[in-house]
User: What shape does this take?
Amino acid sequence: MAAGKAFLLALLLLCGGPAGPASADDEGRGPVVETDRGAVRGREASGVRTFEGIPYAAPPTGPLRWRLPEPAARWDGVRDAGAPGARCVQLPAVGPGGPSGSEDCLFLNVTVPGPTAPYATAPYATAAQAGGAAGAGGQARPGGEGARPRPVMVWFHGGGFMNGAGDLYRPGRLASQGGAVIVTVNYRLGIFGLLGHPALGGAPDLALADQQAALRWVRANAARFGGDPGNVTVFGESAGGLSACLHLTSPASAGLFHRAIVQSGSCSLVVPPRSWLPTTGAYEPFVPEDRTVAAGLDAAARLGCGGPSPAGALECLRGLDAGALATPELMLRFSSVSYGTALLPTEPRRALERGEFHRVPVMQGSTHDEMRIFLGQTLAAYPVPDGRAYRSRLRDAFGAQAARVEAAYPVTAYATPATAFAAVLSDGSFVCPQLRDSRALARHVPSYDYRFDDRDAPNYTGLPDVTGLPYGASHGFELPSLFDTGLPLSAAQRALSERMIGYWTRFAAAGDPDAPGSAHRWPRSPAVLSLAPAPAGIRTVDASAEHHCALWDSVPPA
Assistant: This one.
């Protein structure tokens, strides 16, 4: 039981997000923006303006549970937008506890650069050089009257489609240093967002539908916040990266975005079976619709809602308390997005292979040691103490291919057997699938790849260190370089952070992360840019060779 809980914990960490301090201001004194549903009053501090807890869709509660998102109701007066809205129903990412959050959770948060912030197309300009109209109080576009529209970046959070929230990520530096308008989004999670059932017409992928509703809100309202609705970048990490992949391959996302950044969540991500524990199957973020519908029928029967009438079963399910649905088993069981549906007709990796994706520039990357944080949480229950155990784990995960994998990753080449196995999983599940996807993308659109290589990056998860398996540059460890986490960074790490914020926001502005005259040119795929602090620094690497991608391209997915 403890081992199963550890596995659930590891999967939940795909990836909850780095909390940081929120700004505050006296209610009634902040900037006011008129949205298409009504006016909102935000806050201003630290060179940015924030508008939090803005509803982008109606509450999906009662008869709207498991329905496509509907427009939010209009409101009179000025709505306070000084604090985030409720997070969607979820279980704790770490440790025991029951569900938290609310089904009334379809909110987003907007962070706007101050009027003197540089523009992303010239990230090295000083505030004086950047200029910009002085901000005025009252109802005004946050960029100042006549200000040039700024690129908009829409962040979809991680959490394995089971937990997380937009407000966990504080994008102040992306806005103030990078000059972009940043939007962070809540979307329905687990069984509330990814259930399938015949009464629903299959598996409607409501989590994806919510994100698309948020993008429609951005299209309607970006200009009111000083943003350019014709220059929207979707980006995210882990499940958020997978979400960016979904938008690339969903026909319904056409015209809603213009660039995509995929962080540690490529379209081809699959983790082989028994990687964490002997009892676990493969981790598949995308599954056929019929599998989800079958799981939904089974879940309904177990919940006492398995009558002969699909409509009656759905009515019964809608009558259940959220706590009866938000169990570890059900949230995990419905944490994969279904394909073969109206919103996602084709499995994403197949869509890339066939060229069936939106023609927008793409930037994507992985961390050097992706799987260490996950493997570390299960080592106590399922250790890898020696070469014999390592070979056993390889056989469990890769079957007949195990000998080939061991030849490429001899245990003697690594500090510990656990480190060797983590390298196998990182390369086979994250790095090489990403590079494979980039080759498919690069046949049609500008494509850029990175690898985050700061192996002393701060551990924002708060999880304790694991003997014999240092986390290094693990899954999500690039986030403190982009978001305001409050974690200390060394001088070299701060310099790297500034470079990364420049890369991300320049890409959002122009579809190219490079700055004119930059000393660190970022070539297009298949080249990979290593992002590391000095003394290693930023440089181009042959990631395909270093991570044995010729091997992984010939090993069938799990």
Q: What stands out?
A: Residues 417-442 form the longest helix (26 residues).
